[in-house]
Amino acid sequence: IVPEGIPLTSFSILMARAKGPFEEYLKGSAAIDTLKDGDKVLVLESCTHHTSCEDIGRVKIPAMLQKKSGAKLSFTFVSGLDELPSAEELSTYALALQCGGCMVTRRQLINRIRRVIAAGVPVTNYGMCIAHVNHILGNVVFLYK
Asked: pLDDT by residue (tens digit) across 84-110?
């Protein structure tokens, strides 16, 4: 609903700039377009909040991805600073989604994402995923250009 040319952003994109591997997230968002039936998606939540029926990482984003891809996807959720799957298991994921990371330090976030990238898994964050699915990614990362 925001007119073309009006800059906008989101909390997750601001956090990606402040804490995350911004360029990796940007590249990783393209993997959303390649998701197919049976693909595994790893959802990385940095906090340990109580989930609700409207939870963005466990409900809304998975629904968006399945609708956009038209595929039946399998989701794995890792909360807080819980251990990631092994490197071998990580390599079986088609995509990893990291929350904004507001509850962890930059070092904690980068160390987690580094393992995902080393396994060859494209990674993006919640804000970039939502923007990509809604065809506004170019508008919300305007400062990057």
From this structure: 999 999 999 999 999 988 889 999 999
Report yes or no: 87 and 115 within 8 Å, Cβ to Cβ. yes
- pTM of the prediction? 0.90
Find, among 64, 70, 76, the residue nearest to 40 by Cα.
76
Residues whose CB is less than 8 angstroms from the CB of residue 68 and which lie 6 or more positions away in sequence, other chains included:
32, 35, 133
Q: Among 115, 49, 102, 103, which residue's Cα sits nearest to residue 77?
A: 49
Q: Which residues contact 1 (CB under 8 A, 6 or more apart)?
A: none
